[in-house]
């Protein structure tokens, strides 16, 4: 599927941060509309490649959830990265990729707009109780190969579906003013490039420490989840060195590496 010509304002925005992008953005494919930027990036799968779209007809999040992607109201972006190239403990770099991306996007949003957002394990950005952005990482074949990191950020208020009205927010809703969507794009890509460099250089503790500072729900929040043995619940107690969420339950300590968590409002301690 051929991409569309770059709008001049996109070329200008990327040009202003080109010195900070490194390999990220080595090729940029723009679509006015596509099924999913992750789908297009998975087809091409070249490190540093960026795919972005003005609208997605089949945007998706984790575990098969749809991502609402109307034209012009958000950023829908995918970046191809290869965490297995890390200079030490590449398996750990692969496990930390999603957390690294979430941290970077929160940092880029704050640089572009001044808005501080919280990261919520493993892949979401929140302002208060409302979701601002989500991330989906998908491997391109083997675990040692490239990984597509897709992210969606709500920029403008939109006519959200009924199931999202009380759970979603946007940059402009939070700030009460217009937001330069392409500035947010440029700064999030630059932040991803910087944190990707941390990942490749095995600066894992720097990534985890910065992530924890933006993640109040990682400690003291009550969560529940479903296992083959039934429902479980507990209180979050931080991350381990690989980015797994630690939860204290009545049965002991649980290490959560994947799956769907249900978060309750408020902290327990």
Any key phrases for this structure?
7-stranded mixed sheet, 12 strands, alpha+beta, SH3 type barrels, 269 residues, BirA Bifunctional Protein, domain 2, 2 domains
Task: Report on this structure.
The protein is α+β, with helices and mostly antiparallel strands. The chain has two domains: 8-213, BirA Bifunctional Protein, domain 2 (2-Layer Sandwich), CATH 3.30.930.10; 216-267, SH3 type barrels. It has six helices and twelve strands. It has helices at 8-16, 37-44, 90-113, 171-175, 181-200, 204-213, and strands at 27-31, 49-53, 74-81, 118-120, 124-127, 130-139, 147-154, 219-227, 230-239, 245-249, 252-256, 262-267. The strands form two sheets. It has a seven-stranded mixed beta sheet, with helices on both faces. It has a five-stranded antiparallel beta sheet with strand order 11-10-9-8-12, with no helix packed on it. It starts with 7 loop residues before the first helix and ends with a strand. The model has no long low-confidence stretch (mean pLDDT 90).
């Amino acid at each position: 599927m051929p991409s569309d010509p770059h709008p001049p304002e996109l070329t200008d925005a990327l040009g202003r941060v080109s010195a900070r992008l490194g390999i990220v953005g080595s090729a940029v494919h723009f679509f006015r509309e596509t099924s999913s930027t992750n789908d297009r990036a998975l087809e091409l799968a070249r490190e540093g490649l960026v795919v972005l779209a003005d609208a997605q007809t089949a945007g998706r999040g984790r575990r098969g959830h749809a991502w609402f992607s109307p034209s012009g109201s958000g950023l829908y972006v995918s970046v191809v990265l290869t965490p297995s190239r890390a200079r030490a403990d590449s398996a750990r770099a692969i496990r930390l990729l999603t957390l690294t991306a979430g941290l970077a996007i929160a940092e880029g949003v704050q640089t572009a707009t001044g808005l501080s957002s919280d990261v919520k394990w493993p892949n979401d950005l929140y302002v208060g109780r409302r979701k601002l952005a989500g991330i989906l990482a998908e491997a391109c074949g083997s675990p040692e190969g490239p990984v597509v990191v897709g992210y969606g950020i709500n920029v403008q208020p939109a006519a959200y579906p009924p199931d999202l009205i009380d759970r979603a927010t946007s940059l402009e809703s939070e700030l009460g003013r217009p937001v330069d969507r392409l500035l947010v794009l440029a700064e999030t890509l630059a932040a991803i490039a910087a944190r990707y460099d941390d990942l490749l250089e095995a600066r894992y503790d720097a990534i985890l420490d910065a992530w924890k500072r933006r993640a109040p729900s990682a400690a003291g929040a009550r969560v529940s989840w479903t296992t083959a043995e039934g429902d479980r619940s507990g209180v979050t107690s931080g991350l381990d060195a690989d980015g797994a969420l630690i939860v204290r339950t009545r049965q002991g300590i649980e290490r959560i590496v994947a799956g769907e968590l249900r978060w309750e409002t408020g902290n327990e301690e």
